[in-house]
Amino acid sequence: MAASQYNLQHRQEYSCGALRFPETSASDRCFMQRRSFLKGTGAVIVAVAGGGVWRAYDQGVFSVGEGPAYEPWKDWRKDSNDGSPLVLVRAAILAASPHNTQPWLFKVTNSSIELYIDTQRNVGALDPYLREEHIGMGCALENLMLAATANGYAATVSLVPGELGPISADPPPKLVARVDLARSNRQQSDLYDAIPRRHTNRSAYLPQKAIPPEFIDSLHRLTSDEPDVKIFLFTAEADRKRIAEISSAANSELYSDPAVTRGSDRWIHTNWSAIQKHRDGLTPDAFGAPPIATAMIKMMPVRMLKWAASRGPKDGYSRLMLSAPLIGILAVPDRYGQPDCLRAGRIWQRAHLLATARGVAGRPCNEAVEMIDHEKSLGEPPKRAGLLAEIIGDTKWQPTFVFYMGYSKWTARASPRRPVKDVVV
Ligand SMILES: Cc1cc2nc3c(=O)[nH]c(=O)nc-3n(C[C@H](O)[C@H](O)[C@H](O)COP(=O)(O)O)c2cc1C
């Protein structure tokens, strides 16, 4: 009924215009032409606007942080009152991981949780020794340990020894840590409470807003129970400039290798329904753009997005890094030692949670260390290792993680997460 009425009205309008057109004067005709042009244009605008609204809806422009992919951020305390250790896993899966690969699997009993790395969930040539994926496992372990204390468990960690090598073809999941649990008193902590608010913030920062010295002292103290990780912090402009230049050059060189781009692209999702399905990877909401630009990015086809990204200023990345008043480097005795990677991950997660609790934003910027891996895997001289060693000025320590912190222009958004049922074996 509605459809035939629409057709009828449409036909009457058209006939009316066509019948009158030959009897009109030149100026009338001109007016009529303009009117039908405007009508046509109006129809196109309405159609385009309608299509745009539909695309915006379809691409989740109006649903930031909504849908199944974001539920783990909301129901993370779900099992906290029934005594199930699953509440520890709910906290662990909210941890950071490279490209949001979430490489973790958990074997849970009432008295222990084993952490396995699913080595298939990797970024290929960008992380040829899975060094960063193991750091991600350390991030999950830190959240798990904070959740244990907050939920009434005394937890003891054993890290599995080993040295990292090149990624093998079809590797099975590998045990990297075991946590033994015994009942104890609940102890709340700021860091545990900050877990669902911690998000990597890739927006520009406010360069004039300095970080309070007490916060820097607290960062230094974070490793007091972890002698195998050292945190180096830089606030002087000359030091930050040097690190930003090394990182920016590393970024350009790394991503000019098609193998690296392929490994990274696998984890970049721009389609909203794919994000809700896969629940992992990097997504436009987490790119750090202002809200209106984010909406536009979400509506762009991938090819246009890549083209737009390639038009950015050459020094854009180092400028972004320098907008933050603090750059930090985490270093360990052995960059490719499996337990050292997990230890570094624990400290990054802890540092980022502390920052979140104090209203400070943070972002890893690891291209310089990724270039160390890249040079090693290609058998090239270790140029980047030398440059970073000069910066920290202590050859006992090997840099493995670089980050910056400050006060951001824009709030960071949550990234998607796979559900607990998909990561418990
Ligand atoms: C080992 C490691 C390396 C990372 N390197 C970078 C990086 O170089 N640049 C960046 O923007 N984010 C980096 N990240 C952050 C992840 O992309 C981020 O944790 C992931 O997308 C999940 O988002 P979330 O931290 O907001 O939960 C890194 C994270 C880890 C654990």
Could you name the CATH topology of the largest domain? Answer: NADH Oxidase
Distance between the termini: 55 Å
Mean model confidence by pLDDT = 88
The strand order across the widest sheet is: 1-2-4-3
The ligands found in this model are: flavin mononucleotide
CA-atom Rg in angstroms: 26 Å
Task: Name some characteristics of this structure.
disordered N terminus; globular; NADH Oxidase; 425 residues; 8 strands; single chain; 4-stranded antiparallel β-sheet
Give a nutshell description of this structure.
By secondary structure, this protein is an alpha+beta fold. The protein contains 16 helices and 8 strands.
Q: What this model shows, in words?
A:
There is one protein chain. The protein has three domains: 2-58; 80-193 and 417-423, NADH Oxidase; 200-406, NADH Oxidase. Helix 7 (237-255) packs antiparallel against helix 15 (383-392) and helix 14 (367-377) packs antiparallel against helix 15. The strands form two sheets. It has a four-stranded antiparallel beta sheet, covered by helices on one side. It is 46% helix and 12% strand. It has helices spanning 2-20, 26-58, 86-92, 131-150, 190-193, 213-221, 237-255, 258-265, 272-278, 291-299, 302-310, 316-322, 338-357, 367-377, 383-392, 420-423; strands at 104-108, 112-117, 153-159, 174-183, 230-234, 326-332, 361-364, 398-406. A hairpin with a 3-residue loop joins strand 1 (104-108) and strand 2. The chain has 425 residues and is an alpha+beta fold. It is built from 16 helices and eight strands. Residues 96-100, 132, 135-136, 139, 199-200, 202, 282, 286, 363-366, 415 line the site of flavin mononucleotide.
